[in-house]
Amino acid sequence: MCTLTSILQSDSCLNAAGGIKSFYLLPFADLDSITNGVGANEVSAISLTSTGSPVIYKFEPDEEEATYTQVSERLSSRSVSVSQTITGNFISVNSAEVLNIDNLNNCCKGFLAFVICNQEDASGNPLILMSGIRLQGVTGGFRQSQKALRTDAVEVNMQTLGTDSRVTLNLMCVDPSFAPVFTGSEADLDALL
Asked: CA dihedral defined by 28, 139, 9, 17, rounded to 10 degrees?
């Protein structure tokens, strides 16, 4: 069976899907630097830019209504294209956040997403994948995915109580490599909010 971790390590398992516990959305332009992890394609820490006011959003999906997929396509004997997609219904998003996300998306910046999966890593911690970024070597270099993580559909359902809305998001990017693993914790990401 293909899981989100086996897709990172095996040519025999090139596609995988899994449920999302939550995810964080950060405008790519607000990412200043990363710290590479011990393993290949791992990030242990990030820092945000000090200019302006970096904003990071946290989304929590309705139960069993969100998925993260990585689908690969072998283009040649040496080339693989990976489509990374986040889709689902998310709660606790106010209308101001929806407007900000829509405006940022329209400004063509693209996003970096930290996807907290229902699957656990080898240590029993939630698996966290970073979608929309490609690592460059072991020096902490990075760049945005070849086709930036963008929303191709945003649907807002305002028929909820209070100020929170339900938002249906579909975000997608295409990259020659699989999403890196973030070895930090959800608490590290919460500290950035």
From this structure: -10
pLDDT digits (tens, 9 = 90+) for 56-101: 888 877 766 788 888 888 776 667 788 888 887 766 666 677 776 6
Distance between CA atoms of 16 and 70, rounded to whole angstroms?
6
Q: Which parts of 28-121 are beta strand (E)?
A: 31-36, 42-48, 57-74, 80-94, 111-120
3-state helix, strand, coil in the chain (%, to 5): 10, 55, 30
> Which DSSP letter does residue 137 get?
T
Question: What is the predicted pLDDT for the residue at 182?
Answer: 92
Domain range list for the chain: 6-172+179-190
Q: Count Cα neighbours of 53 within 13 Å in the Cβ-side half-sphere.
A: 3
Q: Cβ distance 18 to 66 under 8 Å?
A: no
The bridge status of strand 111-120 relative to strand 15-27 is antiparallel
Could you read off the pLDDT of 16-66 as tens digits, one per residue?
A: 556 788 888 888 888 898 988 887 788 999 999 887 777 788 887 776 678
Task: Compute the distance between CA of residue 54 and CA of residue 57 in angstroms, rounded to an integer.
Answer: 10
